[in-house]
Inverse folding.
C-alpha cells in the first residue's frame, strides 16, 4: 500500500536531488513519482536465484527506514535474468524504481549483482527520507578488468581484513582481486606438497624500519600465511560478490622466501634468508635447474586447484640476471637451447611455465618485463613501468591490463608528504587517478580491444596495518572504479568529487579509514609579475570550501604580502587571490569547511617553505625539457623558492632520462660565490645521481667561464652538488651529466637512469 502523503512528496523532491552513485551509471533517467520505502521489503526471484536473493535480503534489511508502515503487501524488489534479443555485456543490468517497487533485470548473475550494488547505494540514500525518486538506470561497464591488487608479503593481512577489502571492491563494482602471495619477504600460501615454503618461507627475522634511505631493521620475527582452507574461504567470498581472485606466484625473481626454504633451487645453492628489507635482490630461481620447474609446477597445480581464475599471475618483474650470468646450469641451458642472452633465458623460463599452465586450461599474465626476450605465445601483460608494455602487448595481439605507476600505484603519496604517513614515494593524488585514460592514444581501434582494463596496486613495504591499506585505497579506488566503469564521455572530476563528499560519511560508517588528503590545499608557486618575485596560488579540490592561510613565525624583514590587503600579518586570513612572496617565509594553508555533509572536522594543513637566493624566480632555460611524467611545474620548479625535501614528491622534482644544461639569468652582473643544485638518489626507483655537475658563469650569455664542478655524493635521498668560487656574472650555467644506462646488478639495469633535480642555488 502506498499512500502518497503530501509530506512524502515534499521529502522526495529533495531525495531526487540526492541520487549519488559511484561509479556513475552509463545511463540514468529520473522519472515522475516516488517509491515509499516504509513498507517491508521482499526480494523476489526465480528458484535458481534463491541463494542470491536470500543474501540480498539479509544485506538490505538494515537499510530499511526506522519508520515502519503497516502495509497490505510488501514492496517487491524483483530480480530477473532475461534473455535479450541483442547481445549485451555480461555485466549489463537495468534497474527501475517505480511507485510499486524495484526491479532489476540482467543477463547474468554477475550483472544482477552489479545492479544490486546500485540498489544498495540507492537504499542507503533513501533511508533518511524514507523514499526514493522513481528512475531507470541502464548500465554496463566500460572495461571487463576492473582490478585492485594487494601485496600481503611485505606485510601480512589476515583473512577478515581480506574480506573487508573485497567488500570495498564489490561496493564500487570492481571485479578482480589480484592477490600478491609470494615475494622475497614472505611466502603466504600453504602448499601441501612443499611444506617448507611456509614453514620456513613465511617467516622473516626482522623488518625494515622507516625510510629506505636509512636502511634500519628491527629483529622482530614477522610473518604469516593463509591455509588452503582460508584461501578457499576467500575465493568463495569473492565469488559471491562476482569478483575473480587472481593469485600471483612470483618467478623467476622476488623468490628469496622460496629459496630460503629450498636453497638448492637458487644458482649458488645458498644459504638464503627470507629478506628483511625492501628492494630487488640478485638471488632468483635458477633457470637451468629442472627441479625449479618441478617445484613451480607442483605449486601451480595446487594453486590452480584452489583458484578457479582462468588467468594466473606468474610475476616476472624485476629479475636481476647477475646469478644466471655466472651459473653453469643457466649457461648450459642457454647453450643447449640457443638462447642468445639472459633476457631470452627469462623468456624461456616464462614460456616453459606458460606451457604447463596452458596445459591445465588456464592462461598466464605477468608484469611487463615478460616482454623482454620475447613474449610467451598466449600470455597477457600487466603494464606497470608506464604504458609501453601494454602498448607493445596490444600491438602484438596480446591482452594487457594497465597499471602504470603514474596513475595506478596507490602506495604513492596522495597528498603533501609533510601531512602523510611515510610512503614509498611518488605522488598520485585522487585527481590524477580520476584523470586516467586506460586506452593509450597510440593504439588503433583493433589494438585497443586488447586493453582489458586497469588495476590499482597496493604494495605494502610502508603499509603495516589494515587501516593504512584502507587509507591508501580509499578514495583512490573509487576514482579508478569510475574510470573503469563509466563511459568516458560522462566522466567529470568536479561532479565526482561532489558525489565522493557524500560517500565519505558512508565509508566512515562502514569503518573504512578513507583518506581526506583530497582536502589538502595545493600551494603552487608561480613566476611573479617581475623577476625575483614569486606569486603563490592556493587551490582546494573543493571550490566551495573556504581556504585560509597564514605566515607563521614570519622571519624578520619578510615582505610576503597579499597585494589586495597590504602587508601580511602572521594571523589566519581567508584566501581571496594570489599572494606575493618576495622573501624567505613559510606559508600554511588549509580548507576549513563550515558544515560540509557531516564529514570530519579536522583538515590537513599544507606547508611550503620559501627560500630566496640570487637565482630564485629568475628567467631560466633548459637545453632539453624534463620527461613529461616529471615536469609538473616546468623549468620554473628549479627556481621556485621551494627546495625539494627529504621525501620524494614528483611535483617538486623534475625528471630527465638524460643530462640537461640549465641557464639562469640573474638580471644583472653580480658577485657570485656559490652555485649548487640538488639531485635525488634512489636506485630502487631507478633514480641515480649525476655523473658530474659542471658550473660556469658569463656576463653576456655567450662566453661562459668554468666556475667549478662537483660529483660523487652517494647518500640515499637528496644530495647537494655545489661549488664555491669567485666570479662577476649575470648568467649561471649548470651542466648536469647523467650516468647513462643503469649499471648491471641494479634495479632497471640497462634502462636509462632517471635524473631528478631540484632548486638552483646561487649565492
Ligand atoms: C612491480 O611494481 N614491481 C610490478
Ligand atoms: Zn642458475
Amino acid at each position: 500500500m502506498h499512500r502518497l502523503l503530501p509530506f512524502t512528496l515534499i521529502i522526495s523532491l529533495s531525495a531526487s536531488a540526492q541520487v549519488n552513485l559511484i561509479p556513475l551509471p552509463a545511463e540514468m533517467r529520473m522519472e515522475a513519482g516516488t517509491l515509499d520505502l516504509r513498507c517491508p521489503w521482499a526480494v523476489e526471484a526465480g528458484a535458481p536465484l534463491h541463494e542470491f536473493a536470500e543474501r540480498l535480503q539479509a544485506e538490505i534489511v538494515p537499510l530499511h527506514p526506522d519508520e515502519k508502515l503497516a502495509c497490505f503487501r510488501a514492496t517487491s524488489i524483483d530480480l530477473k535474468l532475461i534473455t535479450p534479443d541483442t547481445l549485451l555485456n555480461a555485466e549489463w543490468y537495468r534497474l527501475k524504481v517505480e511507485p510499486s517497487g524495484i526491479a532489476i533485470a540482467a543477463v547474468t548473475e554477475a550483472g544482477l549483482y552489479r545492479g544490486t550494488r546500485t540498489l544498495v547505494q540507492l537504499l542507503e540514500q533513501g533511508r533518511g527520507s524514507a523514499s526514493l525518486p522513481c528512475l531507470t538506470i541502464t548500465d554496463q561497464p566500460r572495461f571487463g578488468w576492473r582490478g585492485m591488487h594487494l601485496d600481503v608479503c611485505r606485510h601480512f593481512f589476515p583473512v577478515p581484513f581480506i574480506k573487508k577489502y573485497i567488500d570495498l571492491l564489490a561496493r564500487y563494482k570492481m571485479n578482480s582481486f589480484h592477490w600478491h602471495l609470494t615475494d622475497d619477504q614472505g611466502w603466504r600460501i600453504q602448499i601441501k606438497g612443499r611444506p617448507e615454503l611456509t614453514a620456513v618461507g613465511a617467516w622473516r627475522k626482522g623488518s625494515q624500519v622507516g625510510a629506505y634511505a636509512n636502511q634500519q631493521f628491527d629483529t622482530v620475527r614477522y610473518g604469516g600465511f593463509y591455509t588452503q582452507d582460508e584461501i578457499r574461504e576467500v575465493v568463495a567470498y569473492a565469488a559471491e560478490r562476482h569478483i575473480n581472485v587472481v593469485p600471483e606466484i612470483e618467478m623467476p625473481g622476488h623468490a628469496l622466501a622460496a629459496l630460503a626454504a629450498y636453497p638448492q633451487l637458487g644458482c649458488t645453492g645458498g644459504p638464503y634468508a627470507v629478506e628483511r628489507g625492501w628492494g630487488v635482490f640478485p638471488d632468483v630461481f635458477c633457470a637451468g635447474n629442472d627441479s625449479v620447474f618441478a617445484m613451480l609446477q607442483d605449486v601451480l597445480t595446487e594453486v590452480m586447484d584452489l583458484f578457479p581464475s582462468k588467468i594466473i599471475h606468474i610475476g616476472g618483474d624485476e629479475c636481476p640476471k647477475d646469478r644466471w650470468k655466472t651459473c653453469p646450469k643457466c649457461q648450459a641451458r642457454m647453450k643447449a637451447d640457443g638462447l642468445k642472452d639472459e633476457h631470452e633465458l627469462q623468456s624461456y623460463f616464462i614460456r616453459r611455465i606458460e606451457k604447463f599452465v596452458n596445459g591445465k586450461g588456464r592462461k598466464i599474465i605477468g608484469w611487463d618485463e615478460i616482454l623482454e626476450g620475447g613474449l610467451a605465445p598466449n600470455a597477457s601483460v600487466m603494464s606497470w613501468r608506464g604504458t609501453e608494455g601494454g602498448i607493445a602487448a596490444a600491438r602484438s595481439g596480446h591482452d594487457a591490463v594497465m597499471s602504470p605507476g603514474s596513475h595506478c600505484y596507490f602506495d604513492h603519496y596522495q597528498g603533501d608528504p609533510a601531512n602523510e604517513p611515510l610512503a614509498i614515494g611518488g605522488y598520485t593524488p585522487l585527481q590524477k587517478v580520476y584523470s586516467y585514460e586506460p586506452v593509450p592514444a597510440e593504439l588503433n581501434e583493433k589494438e585497443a580491444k586488447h586493453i582489458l582494463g586497469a588495476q590499482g596496486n597496493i604494495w605494502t613495504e610502508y603499509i603495516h596495518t589494515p587501516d593504512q591499506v584502507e587509507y591508501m585505497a580509499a578514495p583512490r579506488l573509487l576514482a579508478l572504479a569510475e574510470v573503469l566503469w563509466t563511459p568516458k564521455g560522462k566522466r567529470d572530476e568536479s561532479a565526482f568529487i561532489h558525489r565522493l563528499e557524500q560517500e565519505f560519511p558512508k565509508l566512515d560508517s562502514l569503518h573504512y579509514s578513507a583518506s581526506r588528503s583530497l582536502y589538502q590545499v595545493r600551494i603552487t608557486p608561480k613566476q611573479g609579475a617581475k623577476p625575483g618575485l614569486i606569486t603563490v596560488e592556493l587551490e582546494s579540490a573543493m571550490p566551495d570550501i573556504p581556504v585560509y592561510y597564514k605566515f607563521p613565525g614570519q622571519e624578520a624583514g619578510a615582505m610576503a604580502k597579499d597585494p589586495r590587503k597590504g602587508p601580511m600579518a602572521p594571523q589566519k586570513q581567508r584566501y581571496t587571490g594570489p599572494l606575493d612572496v618576495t622573501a624567505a617565509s613559510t606559508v600554511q594553508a588549509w580548507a576549513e569547511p563550515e558544515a560540509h555533509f557531516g564529514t570530519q572536522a579536522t583538515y590537513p594543513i599544507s606547508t611550503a617553505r620559501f627560500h630566496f637566493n640570487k637565482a630564485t624566480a629568475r628567467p631560466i632555460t633548459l637545453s632539453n625539457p624534463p620527461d613529461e611524467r616529471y615536469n609538473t611545474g616546468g623549468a620554473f620548479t628549479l627556481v621556485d623558492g621551494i627546495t625539494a625535501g627529504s621525501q620524494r614528491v614528483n611535483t617538486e622534482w623534475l625528471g630527465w632520462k638524460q643530462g640537461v644544461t640549465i641557464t639562469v639569468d640573474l638580471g644583472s652582473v653580480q658577485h657570485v660565490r656559490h652555485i649548487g643544485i640538488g639531485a635525488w638518489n634512489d636506485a630502487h626507483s631507478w633514480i641515480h645521481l649525476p655523473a658530474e655537475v659542471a658550473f660556469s658563469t658569463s656576463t653576456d650569455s655567450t662566453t661562459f667561464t668554468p666556475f667549478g664542478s662537483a660529483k660523487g655524493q652517494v647518500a640515499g635521498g637528496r644530495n647537494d652538488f655545489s661549488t664555491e668560487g669567485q666570479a662577476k656574472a649575470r648568467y649561471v650555467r649548470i651542466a648536469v651529466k647523467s650516468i647513462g644506462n643503469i649499471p648491471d646488478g641494479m634495479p632497471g639495469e640497462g634502462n636509462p637512469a632517471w635524473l631528478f633535480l631540484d632548486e638552483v642555488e646561487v649565492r
